[in-house]
Amino acid sequence: MIRLRALDTLSRRIFVILLLGITIAAIAGGEWAEHRQTESLHHIQAERAVERASALLTGLQGVVPKRRQHEAKESSAFLRSANAADGSGMRDAELTALMQPRLLPGMQASVARLPTERCLIPGDGESQVGVSESAFEEARDSKAAVEAGACLRMDAKFADGSALDFITGPPPLLKPAQGMDLGFLTVLGVATALLALLVAQIAVAPVRTLTRAAAGFGPGDEASPLRERGSSDVRTAIRAFNGMQRRLARHSAEQTHMIAAITHDLQTPMTRMRLKLEAIDDDGIRSRLLSDWQAMRAIVEEGLELARSTHLREEAVLLDVDSLIESIVEDETEAGHQVTFQTAAGRDLRCRPQMLRRCVQNLVDNAIHYGGKADMATRVDAQGFSIEIRDAGPGIPEDKLEAVFEPMARLETSRSRETGGTGLGLTIARILAARNNATLALANLPEGGLLATILFANPAYD
Questions:
Q1: Residues in domain HAMP (predicted)?
Q2: For residues 167 and 181, is the Cβ–Cβ distance under 8 A?
């Protein structure tokens, strides 16, 4: 199924569904009301035709039978004598009952409905009653009323037994149907769109709040419950999210405490082990065993660092990031490492200083260890605020750029601190970057070397 990109959000789908639903319902209701109104007007037209015919027949009662046909011709422009081609039509009991009380005693009449095309005006091909110019104009003005109303056949008998059968239509009251009013449709469309937009925004507001909370929840964050609001389904989802958030926070705390306890408990036996290793007389064996001991100690220390990084508590403050970078450069230079600060952004950034410093320090250590040097820069561009650390090492295979962030992941199989490291430095750096609402990514440089970028996509400068 092809999914329309324009309807990819819940708010847009609700908006379109409401807009279409309300519009269709309004148009259908308008058409139904117009139909009922038209039927009502048709009935009124028919009643007026009956009243006009009753008045005509009552007036002709006092006329001698030979003159009645002539008088009927002169009295109405839209009336003609009935003939065999007209047929008897469909008797209308309601109009007949309405007409009878209006006639004089001894008179009788019945009313039947005919197809509207039987009510013709002069020039339509049938003989017409009324040939004067004024009668012709009146008949033509009445055509719209006949087309929108009914064509009636009236069969009348006078008190003297003579009969008069004629075809007539309603008086000019209605105009031809014009369809839906454009102004009404415009107002309806605008009002419906505004209502649909309002309802869509109200409906998705709790969902957006839930989405922001889920996106912002990270390792070590406090489980701040969301306020339960919205429909029952949304409240249930928020309640489930709050429960999940509490369970994740509890699990993370338990995991951190467990790792911290293990690494702490290892300190004492490792110290005893170091003392025993120092007592070995054979220099070669002692050197190899001490090297393994140092690798084990590095793993324990960085494991403890990893545990701490997920549960650090630090408030965000406004920081001169360039000064922080410069202090790291000074420390590394004093230690004899080749570290430079090439480009300064010159912007203060709201962040967690200690977490950011440790994140950058881990990346600098990694660059020095594998690339021999670290060139740093801070930039502000359309993507946000970024801190870059470049090295001159061999880089990382493209398919391993994400894998190296996994705990204990190393490109080398050696466990030696001098060659492969512990495999936790980049993991800790990414966690610390995430705690600062930033991302950490690696990329190989075309000229060689590796580029590590800490990107604040939505930086706060005040």
A1: 201-253
A2: no
